[in-house]
Structure formats: structure tokens, C-alpha cells
Design brief:
The chain has 236 residues and is of the alpha/beta class. The chain is built from eight helices and twelve strands.
């Protein structure tokens, strides 16, 4: 089955060229030029993956990403000419799965789409019941999924996964804010200082909505956060 990709890009020449490439490597691709037409496509032809430009007429890509994360868990890949660190961090704060800057390698985009779709598909599968793990949270490192004690699976963005994995590695012990916002590599900070609390707030809200239970990530005044419940880290 081909992966359904929806491309949101206002540059007509670029949109047609990228749509042709993605179709040529086997994806089922549709495209729109702005957020207004995006709404119709989401209802009429729900995609697996959204490839999103940020500089759109009307509501920009950040607004689109925020609205999508409030109501859906489809994969979101940003593809933009905005290279500023602040834009990249803002996108990660909003929960996008990958952030490409132009110019980019189309073959790499194809691989990201395939890997993201595989992870989303596996994340949607029911979690096996493990009697030894009942009553515990679990973090699935292979699928970037947080599993509640009742077995409900919550898909995590890359930034959310890094946050939870750092807290889970020291479960029951506080992790300093400085450790939570340290750079994952030279280019990609986990999350900016100003965005850490926003990231935690949004994750708590989404976990409660999807699981019907509270995420046991607690604030420790003057220090950082703690995962205040048993959690098992499943191998990647």
C-alpha cells in the first residue's frame, strides 16, 4: 500500500516538482497551496504524512502545525527555507516530526516519510498485555511510543521522546532543567529554555486526553522535572 502524502507548498513550480518526485518513488501524493484548501483535503483524502512549508499565504505553517497537533496524530514533516534556530526550535516545540531546510536531499525526505509512516503504523497497533508490566508505564524506544499502565499507546514526537527518555532514565529522581534542555547534537537542541514548560504542559494535556490518566511528570521547584511513577524502558 502506498503512503498517502499531502504536500502544502505555495510555490507552484516547487510544489509540482516535489509532487512528481514523491509520486515517482511510489507515494500517493496530493498537494495544496495554502491552509484554506488544506482543510478540505484533510477531510476528503486523509493523509498519512503531511509535508508542510512554513511561509504560506494566510495562516502560516506554524499555525497549521499547532492546529493539527491539537486534533490529530498524523506525521508532520516541515520543509522550509527558514533556517533560523528559533524557527527550528519552535517547530519542535509544536511537535513536528522532522524539520528540513531548503535546499534538501529529496532521497532523504523519501526515507524520512517511509520511516515515519512505519513508526506511526506500528504505534497504532494495540500493545501486548504483559502481566509483569501491569501498573507500570513503558517507553518504547523503537516506536517512540509512551504506553500507559492500562496499555494505551501515545505516539511521541522526536522532542517529546527525548524529554521522556531522559526523565525515564532517572525515574523517581529529579532531572535538572539544564540537563533537559542540553543539546542533543550541535544543531538540534532538545528544546529552548522558554519552551520546556510549554512542551511538558502540552504533553500532559495530550496524554490525559488520549489515556484518560495523568502523566506523572512533576515539576520540582528550583530544579527541573521528575517522572514520579514506575516506568520500564523497552529496547530500541
Amino acid at each position: 500500500m502506498s503512503i498517502r502524502v499531502l504536500l502544502v507548498e505555495d510555490d507552484a513550480d516547487f510544489r509540482v516538482g516535489l509532487e512528481g518526485f514523491l509520486s515517482g518513488v511510489g507515494h500517493s501524493v496530493r498537494s495544496v497551496a495554502d491552509a484554506e484548501h488544506l482543510e478540505h483535503e484533510l477531510e476528503a483524502h486523509p493523509p498519512h504524512i503531511l509535508v508542510l512549508d512554513l511561509n504560506l499565504p494566510g495562516p502560516d505553517g506554524f499555525s497549521v502545525a499547532h492546529a493539527l497537533r491539537e486534533r490529530t496524530s498524523i506525521g508532520v514533516v516541515v520543509l522550509t527555507g527558514r533556517t533560523a534556530r528559533e524557527d527550528r526550535v519552535r517547530g519542535l516545540e509544536l511537535g513536528v516530526d522532522h524539520y528540513f531546510t531548503k535546499p534538501f536531499d529529496p532521497a532523504e525526505l523519501d526515507l524520512v516519510i517511509r520511516n515515519l509512516h512505519r513508526r506511526l503504523t506500528q504505534a497504532a497497533m494495540p500493545a501486548p498485555v504483559d502481566s509483569a508490566r501491569l501498573g507500570k508505564w513503558a517507553l518504547d524506544g523503537a516506536q517512540w511510543v509512551l504506553v500507559s499502565p492500562e496499555g494505551t499507546r501515545v505516539r511521541l514526537s522526536s522532542t517529546e521522546y527525548q524529554l521522556v527518555s531522559r526523565l525515564a532514565a532517572r525515574q523517581g529522581r529529579p532531572v535538572a532543567r539544564a540537563d533537559l534542555i542540553q543539546r542533543n547534537d550541535a544543531r538540534d537542541p532538545l528544546v529552548a529554555e522558554r519552551g520546556l514548560d510549554v512542551l511538558v504542559f502540552r504533553l500532559r494535556k495530550r496524554v490525559e486526553a488520549e489515556c484518560g490518566c495523568k502523566l506523572p511528570v512533576m515539576s520540582v521547584r528550583g530544579l527541573g522535572y521528575v517522572f514520579d511513577a514506575p516506568i520500564e524502558i523497552l529496547p530500541a
